[in-house]
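Researcher: Re-running this chain for the archive, since the previous output was lost when a drive failed. Same request as before.
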Amino acid sequence: MMQSDPPVSQADAAGPWRRRLAGGAALLAVILAAAALVFWVASQWGGWAPDARLWLARGALAGTSLAASALAWRAGRWVDLPAGLAAACTGALLALVGQAYQTGADAWPLFLLWAGLSLPWLLLLRTVFPWLLCAALLNLALGLYLSSGAASWLDWDDSRTFLGLAALNACLLVLAEWAGARLDDPWRLARRLAAAALLWGLWMAGFPAALDMGAGPAPWLPVLSVAVLAALYWVYARRRRDLAVGALALLTGLGLVWLWLWPHADDMLTMLGLILLLLALGLAALAHVRRLWRAVSPARAPGEPWFLAGLRVGILGSVVLLLVAWVAAMADIETGAQALLLGVILLVPGLWLARRGRPGALAGQLGEVLAGVGLVLATGGALFLDTDRGLPALPLGAVLALGAAVFLASARQALRFAAALAVLAAVLWLTWPATPAGRGLLDAAPADWPQGLMLRLWWCQAGAVLAWTLSLRADRRPLWRPVAWALLLVAPPLAWLAAAFGGGYAWGLPLPDRLAGLAVALLPGLVLGAWLASRRALPPAACWTAAAVLSMAGLGWVDAPGVSVALTGFLLGRLAGHRLLSCLGAAIALPGLYVFYLDPAVTLAHKAGSLGLAALWLLAAAGLAGRPALGAALGLAARRAPWRRPAGMLAAGALALAVAQIQIHHYRTILAEGRPVVLALAPVDPRSLMQGDYMDLDYAVRRQARDWLGERTSVRDALQASGRGWLLLRSDDRGIWQLAGVTAETPMAAADVVALAFRWRAGEMDWGARSWFFPEGQAERYARARYGVLRVAVDGTALLSGLLDEEQAPL
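Model: Regenerated structure tokens:
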């Protein structure tokens, strides 16, 4: 008698989905917790003493290291999450040490030390995210080092600063290739981002050299750039077969060709020839990359891969903008009507060529360029039609009619995307509530900036979700996918503007804007719930419970719409299997959080609290989603893993704690034993990247020393040769220390003289003590500072210990 397999219950089928949702919630919780940690450190919470904050950071680092070690001991799948949080806690602890002992804002040693202490986590985990953290920290450290004047001994300038960053990323690219299969990187992010940073450094280095801005390495920079680009192209187009990197190298090469040649175009005819040369080279590069892709992927669908589409947009888009500028200059356009008419004249033959040409054919691509020039000119002209005669809707109607005509007349995705993007941008501009023509067109009543901004963001987000959903069917994709991409690209700038200028946006504006802000925050949860319900991946109650959990978490970032926009894009890409959209969604989360960080209307402590509560909520939901088998949700194996990896994680946490404790002991020794020196100062108030509000200090004695050295070139030459020296200070009748001299030789001890050691950087003296950190919102209190109190050790090392007012009373 035949036996059949027992039917799979819905609960059994839902198990993998529960684990995926638990893992996703835990990952999002860790990201939010890391952001909350940075915000909390930067807030310098005045209610806590520095030692209390340091102990809390120590406890967080120890706890996350223990959690990572425990999961590694049980071979847990999600060991990366507490390990990543431990790496973030390491940076927070180092930043808190800098706050407590006033060692300087955004100093390059902080980021370099953080990168070094993150290296053990990279070696233990061998995943791409610790790699990306280390790479970002190294780039920050080197950029700050070169821009701070610390590399003055190299005669470094702006052009070579970018070359230094390019060299660093070239080394990272070589290391990524050496790691190879040892690094868990299925999307090849380490390779591609290192190559992109390398090419960006080459491109930025070309600006001061090509424009003759300073003593950049112009004579040999083109040779070096060509050699690097040729090597990258040969390796990734011929040897290791990553056509995304090869296409990026070709695009960078075309940009450098333009950058080097356009300063030599003396007249408009030569400029046109240069633009046409760029177009010819670009079309040849497109055809070449397409042939390579067809050769390695003959069985793929006829559509273009993402890197080929990106190369097309980069080349043709740049040529279109250059031709628009050339045509506008040659035609001497003075009114919007003239630009509109000229644009329509160019659009008609361009659309005809684009429709008749086959995909990839020369005629079709030339038609795309010509139609693109006409579209930009016509749209720009429509924006500036005369609206003073009581017809404010005339430009809006012209833009809508123009965009609809181009969209329907062309079957090419690039032109449809350009038409949708141009119409969307023009409509937003024409209906902007702060402009006289836009008042009341889309709003219930005339509104001032920034009212109405969140409503527009909601319309773009809702429209993007709807258009992307409609484009999931293959027969509807050519119509709706360009519209979805246009809406998805317009939404992030709107979100950043809302966070930058709204200031507690969701709760500080009229009711329609508050409701729109709430809807934007809830949208990711609605997307998740609708997708799960449509796929019947979970029981209906579980689907909408997951949606409710994510929507409740959205209340934590309601004042940061950039997070909601990023999460919506990431979910749309992830759920539809679209890798590019997922990566873009993850990428725009960082600027969204950074703009939220800079918003002065909401305190950093409030931001940290809201993000932290959202992280705790998601973490609790992740734990509940794994029940009744929480161990299975965490991926805990029945057997135990080898002891080396868990022990290494404990050692990594202990090493970070030990390094921080050594720093603390060193600074406390200087404060306890150093000689007090009072110097006159001049403060200003910026905000640090990691450490919050601070006063950037300058000292009167520094200016006195600069004048003193101007009359003694021999001492200045000695300082330049040795790279270090000492300020000799003597106290006056008021107890303020004044300059007695400067020397490059180790001074003799004297009872009435203090020798303050400094480094000679870019022709300036640097002894540290350049900033004073204070809790957020206390700028007025410290604006009265007139003197700084330094503690100077026997070897001349100084540490800022306090500020005094005009009467020399402590602040």
